[in-house]
Amino acid sequence: MLTVGIAGLGAIGMRVATALDTGEIADMKLAAVSAGDLARAKERVAQFADPPSVIKATALADHAEIVIECAPKPVFRPLADAVLKAGRIFMPLSCGQLLEHPDLIDLAQTHSGRIIVPTGAILGLDAVRAMAVGEIQSVTLETRKPPAGLAGAPHLVENGISVDQLAEPKQVFAGSARQAAIGFPANVNVAAALSLAGIGPDRTTVEVWADPTIDRNMQTVRVVSDSGEITMGIRNIPSAENPRTGKVTALSVIACLQRMTAPLVAGS
């Protein structure tokens, strides 16, 4: 029985917490959770069959072997430090932060910790990872979201780009995955995940579109390599609680946890 801690009880964290409490994930137990408002967090898990401890984020590693991060940006670094120094498994949803803190990989290695990035709202990371064993020439991600899913992104604010009252699709960004992670920290963690699976954040190209003609978050990945070419697309239904993320993101975390104890695993 592996113990799990969750930092953040928003749309993703609460869905994963519920799955753990109801036994949807075999051989794992929700040991502890954290959130910005600990009193509110305690209320939210009070009706669970086996209520977890409600503690500050940096204490999660004292209670859990696996710590899932789905919290605001300021929480990321202190949480990652505490988890990895304790030799635990760190599962970040804000994986764009890994591009800003690459030293965490060395920290994990030094303390026998691990960093596992769930697939999230992207697809085909297993195929990209396999192609990267050979030689990849190019990786491109095109992400399209309803304008409300991009509103308030730092890149838009800093450059005075409005996505209000659009009548047609508008490209609001083109650049590297590293730049995308900085400009859209709450929107395109998929770009960081894709770059980590493939050829890195500086060689992975990203386009971001605000598209008023769609009601789903759309990702299209194109890869050219010495072992073949792939084009993959996914149309994610936005979370009702948070339109910046897709419903599938929480499900990918659940699938990642299930994979860790499953007797049969399909996919590399």
List the defining traits of the structure above.
Dihydrodipicolinate Reductase, domain 2; 34% helix; alpha/beta; Rossmann fold; 25% strand; 6-stranded parallel beta sheet; 268 residues
Give a description of the structure.
This protein is an alpha/beta fold. The protein has 2 domains: 133 residues, NAD(P)-binding Rossmann-like Domain (Rossmann fold); 120 residues, Dihydrodipicolinate Reductase, domain 2 (2-Layer Sandwich). It is 34% helix and 25% strand. The protein is built from 10 helices and 11 strands. The strands form 2 sheets. Strands 3-2-1-4-5-6 form a 6-stranded parallel sheet, sandwiched between helices. It has a 5-stranded mixed sheet with strand order 8-9-7-10-11. Helix 1 runs parallel beside helix 10, helix 3 runs parallel beside helix 5 and helix 8 packs antiparallel against helix 9.
Approximate shape: globular
| First-residue to last-residue Cα separation | 24 Å
CATH architecture of the largest domain: 3-Layer(aba) Sandwich
Q: Major sheet, described briefly?
A: 6 strands, parallel
- CATH homologous superfamily of the largest domain? NAD(P)-binding Rossmann-like Domain
The CATH C-level name of the largest domain is Alpha Beta
Can you tell me the residue ranges where pLDDT is under 50 for at least 5 consecutive residues?
Answer: none
SS strand fraction: 25-35%
Number of domains: 2
* Annotated CATH topology of the largest domain: Rossmann fold
Helix content: 25-40%
Order of helices and strands: EHEHEEHEHHEHEHEHHEEEH
Strand elements, count: 11
